[in-house]
TrEMBL record:
Keywords: ATP-binding, Nucleotide-binding. Residues 1-12 have a biased composition (Low complexity). Residues 1-26, 42-61, 78-97 are annotated as: Disordered. GO terms for molecular function: ATP binding. It comes from the Bacteria. The lineage of its organism: Bacteria, Bacillati, Actinomycetota, Actinomycetes, Micromonosporales. This is ATP-binding protein.
């Protein structure tokens, strides 16, 4: 698809307050003009400059990893109890089958 003709929309222009139409059809309904109200059609989709990179603090990352691994070790060290499920077709909590 091609957008509107060059110069049809400037980057700083606000969209028109009244919809842009291409007249009316045989039923009297307004005919839409594709992309006529888009003000940013001519602006590039990507920013010109890359966003500044913010590297995380190595000490903070190390602290988070230490807490993560200590939590994993604690979870592995905990004694777990197995939960036995009743066989299929067995009694339910209410005692009914």
């Amino acid at each position: 698809r091609q957008g509107p003709a060059a110069g049809a929309a400037t980057p700083d222009a606000a969209p028109p307050t009244v919809p842009v139409t291409g007249g009316v059809n045989e039923r009297g309904l307004p005919v839409r003009v594709p992309m006529a109200q888009l003000a940013a059609v001519t602006q590039p989709a990507r920013p010109q400059e890359p966003a500044p990179r913010h590297d995380p603090d190595p000490e903070a990352v190390g602290g988070m990893l230490t807490r993560l691994y200590s939590g994993v070790r604690r979870a592995e060290a905990e004694e777990t109890t197995e939960i036995f499920l009743p066989p299929a077709g067995g009694r339910t909590e209410g005692g009914h089958q």
